Each structure stands twice: as C-alpha cells, then as structure tokens.
Write a sequence for this structure.
C-alpha cells in the first residue's frame, strides 16, 4: 500500500519544503510573507520539519536584528523527491481501469 | 445572503511549479546592480575625460600637467578597485535593504568553473577591441562594434545560460540588443553614434544592461506574485487541513 510521507503531506509543510527546494536558503520573513501564515504557525510547522531532519534552521544576528534562515537538508530533498514519486504512483494506480469481470 | 466563492487550492501540478518560481524570483532580485552600473558609468566618463585631458596636455607640451593627470588616472583606478571590493562585500546587505519587505532569499550557488569559457571569451573580446582600436585602420570605425559583438554575443548567451538557465530571461536582452546594434551597423542604418567607438561600445551597452536590470526586476515582481498565489498556505485562510488537494 502506497503511503505519502506524513511529515511532508501536510499542506503548509509541503509548501515550505517546495519553496526551499528552489533556493539555497530563505529567511523567516520570506516564508512568512509568501505563505501568508502567522508567526506561530510557521514556527510550529518549520519546527516539525527540523525535528525529522528535513530542515536546517540557523539563527543569527545582523547588527541588532535577529535573523532566522531556513535551508532544506539533503535528507529533506531526497524525501521530497520520493514524496512526489509516491504521489505519482498513487495517481497512476487510481487511474488504472478496473479489471473486467467475465461472466462464467 | 450569498457567500463569496472560496479560491480553489492549487493542483499538484501547480504546487510542483513552486521551486521554479522561487528560483526565478531569487535570481531576479537584481535592482542593486543598478548602483554598480551607475558607478561604473561615472568611472568610465571620468576615465575618458582624464584621457582626453592627458592627450591635450601632451599635445601642448606640458609635462607637469601630464604627470598630474597621470597621477589622477592612477588614483581613479585605485578608487575603482576599492569601490569594486566595497560593493562585493556589501552587495548582500544592499540587496537585503532594497528587498527588505519581501524577506531574504538566496539562490543556489553557481559553480564559477561553469563559466570559465565565458570569461576567456570576454578577455579575448577585450584584447581584440584594444588591438583593433590602436591599429587605427579605416575599417575600425564601422566594424569594431560588429567584431566585438561576434565574440561578445555568443559568449554572453553561453555564460548567462550556464549561470541562470531560463530563470532570468530578461538578462538575455543585453546580448540580443548588442546583436541588433551590430546588424544595424553592418546594414549601414544611419543612427547617430551607433558605430562610434565610445557611444557604440560603452554608452549603449550600459543602457542595455540598465534596461535588462530593470526588466529583470519587474520580472522578479511578477515571479513573486505567481509564487505567492501558488504557495499561499490553506491555514492562512483559516481552512487548515491535514492533506492537500
């Protein structure tokens, strides 16, 4: 039975991973403004991705301003690729015509 | 009371476009390059003015003035090198300030070895231009720009393709306009300054680069709008959900 990765399948987490897969890294404000989320929601979802090792979060200061950068790990990229392969397989299997039952 | 229709969530195919538009946006945050181009244009003008002053002083047999202009020339070169280093070190901070409201995003690093051929071709073009301009032959006035374009255009297209691929299409405006200018020069279309060494080889390419930078910035804004539409999280509308459509 094909099952997509539950850590990625959640819509916001999927979007975070897709956003980060196109670039080297992005900061908290970029993700916040692009996803249109609240601070708390983004922190929670990104934290879950960090816990499973898909995301690397780096905190630093630029002058006196805190800066949080997000980067997809190699593991995260690998799981994202596998996630879409699984979704393709699920879609393909659901589109296959049902076998015709021959009347005996 | 009628309910307003809920926007349709993006399909899987649309979600798969998110990395492409993120990269396009990240690669088109180029507005700070205008600062560099303006400074470069000022330096080129200053170099040209000093060169002209030195030539006149030499003709008037004024060695003192020649030495003074020579020293100014060297100071200007040192100032340019200093500015280049300063800009390189501050480029990211300038970009961060210009695009503060969008947040910070860094595109994937480009392997500089990919564009070695491009750098070599540009050096060849520079040497060729110098050799032709000092030779002072009759053909140089008219054909120096087309000869330059012959090396510059394919090298630039190749370099841009290796660095940007299709993520910054507006940058290709530079080689396209240089090629168009070369065609017009060869065809003998009477546009003032088009075949002139200074206007045709310095001023117009600066204008092309500035145009490409502004066009890229506008394209970047378009990419960001597309990206925000595609990546807008369902939670942002308060609908939540555990699985995407």
């Amino acid at each position: 039975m094909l099952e997509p990765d539950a850590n990625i399948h959640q819509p916001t987490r999927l979007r975070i991973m897709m956003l980060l897969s196109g670039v080297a890294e992005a900061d908290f404000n970029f993700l916040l403004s692009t996803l249109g989320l609240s601070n708390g929601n983004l922190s929670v979802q990104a934290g879950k991705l960090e816990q499973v090792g898909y995301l690397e979060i780096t905190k630093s200061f630029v002058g006196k301003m805190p800066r949080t950068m997000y980067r997809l790990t190699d593991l995260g990229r690998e799981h994202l690729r596998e996630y879409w392969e699984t979704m393709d397989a699920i879609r393909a299997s659901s589109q296959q015509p049902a076998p015709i039952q021959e009347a005996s | 009371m009628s309910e307003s229709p809920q926007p349709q969530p993006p399909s899987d195919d649309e979600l798969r476009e998110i990395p492409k538009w993120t990269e396009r946006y990240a690669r088109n945050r180029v507005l700070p390059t205008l600062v560099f181009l303006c400074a470069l244009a000022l330096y080129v003008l200053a170099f040209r003015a000093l060169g002209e002053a030195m030539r006149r002083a030499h003709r008037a047999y004024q060695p003192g003035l020649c030495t003074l202009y020579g020293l100014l020339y060297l100071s200007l070169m040192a100032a340019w090198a200093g500015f280049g280093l300063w800009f390189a070190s501050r480029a990211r901070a300038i970009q961060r300030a210009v695009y503060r409201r969008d947040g910070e995003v860094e595109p994937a690093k480009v392997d500089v070895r990919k564009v070695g051929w491009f750098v070599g071709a540009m050096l060849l073009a520079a040497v060729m231009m110098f050799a032709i301009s000092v030779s002072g032959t009759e053909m140089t006035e008219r054909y120096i720009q087309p000869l330059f374009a012959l090396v510059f255009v394919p090298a630039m297209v190749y370099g841009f393709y290796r660095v940007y691929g299709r993520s910054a299409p507006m940058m290709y405006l530079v080689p396209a306009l240089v090629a168009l200018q070369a065609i017009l020069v060869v065809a003998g279309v009477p546009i003032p300054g088009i075949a002139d060494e200074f206007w045709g080889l310095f001023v117009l390419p600066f204008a092309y680069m500035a145009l490409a930078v502004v066009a890229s910035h506008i394209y970047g804004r378009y990419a960001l709008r597309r990206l925000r539409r595609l990546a807008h999280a369902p939670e942002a509308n308060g609908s939540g959900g555990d699985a995407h459509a």
